[in-house]
Amino acid sequence: MSATIHYHDIGDYLSREEKLKIIDDFGDIASIPWQAIAPDKHGDWLNKRDSEFDDYIPLAPEEKFDYLAKSWFTVNSSGLKTGMDDIATGYSRQCVLDAVKKKIGHSEKPKTVEYSYRPFNKQWLYYDRETNQRQYRIPNIFPLCDSASLREKNYPNKVIWVKSPGGSKDFSCLITDCIPDIQPDGGIQCFPLYWYEEIKADTSVMELPGLEKQSGYIKHDAISDFILQEFRKIAGPRVQKEDIFNYVYGALHNPDYRAKFAADLKKQLPRLPLPKNRREFEKVEKVGRELANLHLHYEEIDPWPLDEIAAGKIDYRVEKMSWAKDGKTVRKDMLVVNPSLTLAGIPKEAHEYVVNGRTPLEWLIERYQVSTHAESGIKNDPNKWGEEHGYPVYIVELVKRIVRLSVETVRLVGELGDGRKAAAEDATQAHPSATPPYWWKSGKWGVASPMPEGGHVVMGLKHKWYEKIEAGLKHEELREVKPFWDAKLAGRKGKELRAVTFMKGQASKEQMTWEVLRVDLRGNYYCLELGKRIA
Q1: According to the model, what pLDDT value does residue 455 have?
Q2: Residue ranges of the domains in the chain?
Q3: Looking at domain 436-533, which CATH architecture does it have?
């Protein structure tokens, strides 16, 4: 037995009374413009996903820390969950230490670190495995160590967080260089630039590309080698993983992408297409880089020139900010800081940028107010943040900076609106290395023509290096600068190096041939950067 389901959308964000009135106005059930609906292959009845989305490359790997992952990143993590925000977080470092000590009997100052508690809202976090309810993979992204300054110096990182599937708010993302909170409305997933592996007694230190030893940790790239090679085919061999990280941040802000895949982004983690050509890559990467700099350094950008309307002597202390009112009309061009100070001249563009359901200014109004926790009685005073940093006007100046941030974000995002369409209209802009690779000759870079006679070299490799290249875990080969290699790699008598054949050992029948993207000089070594496998 089958049935037909009929549906009519009366709109979002309506009260019960408003919904009933709309139905009543139809007068008769037969007058309602019903739409017959049926589920798709995903079981979606409404807000159906776009099948094109599944063709794109996922941000998240199927298995974390997989070097061979066919995804943008090799690792991701939820934001941190303290389980006791009133105790483990706060605007005053000393208050957090005191609260933790009272709760568990001891506390250590180096374990208090800056915490991205809400968008554009920093507080102190007591970062400790025993007291944080869930840290997920955050210690692999922002390592635990005995000194906050040592952590910032030796283990810098940044993450792009996106809303986890299932929340009620529309998709959004944000970049931060400090530990992010799990966030309300379903949580977030964080995609880092790097991840760190703690060196323990039984740690096997693998010799892999993108790996760097730091004191106590091994630093790994979180952008996959797979995605790097795909980008270099499209945009050339000079593309670096941080460029791709910036590209991701730009692409996730594309309003066309967000609109087209709104339903998909509510139900699963993002998937992104590769850029069509070098032109598109450079455009999106540039916007992503500028957005990242703006959002990471929001406390340092020039304040927007808001008018300060004073009522007597100005007091910069904040209890609770609110929008100004003209009678019953709320005025969002003016913000009442306190009875002595109102900030005026907020442009309308400052209300167009939304992250996790609210504008940055709305987040400031909500978070920068004095509050007392109902159960613990702990007071959280946002003025303490500025006082402890020697900057008592911090909140007022932050409002001005967030206005500029919002306006600039709207401007930059606007540059992405027709980015993919414009790029598709000019598919001829692909980087020349997508077909012929770069080559090195006479001390400068040129573009290779079709492979000339003798356009490759043969090298013998130790078994372990051969196997790493074969598995895609090693993407370059070094040779010492000596007359023999000078002739083969630098001189070549006008012939361009296009390919290299590796033998497993010095006289083995087992061999493979790889494209050479370029030959670089690193100190006293020639470095062959490998592209795709040819044979």
Answers
A1: 67
A2: 5-38, 307-404, 436-533
A3: Roll (2.30)
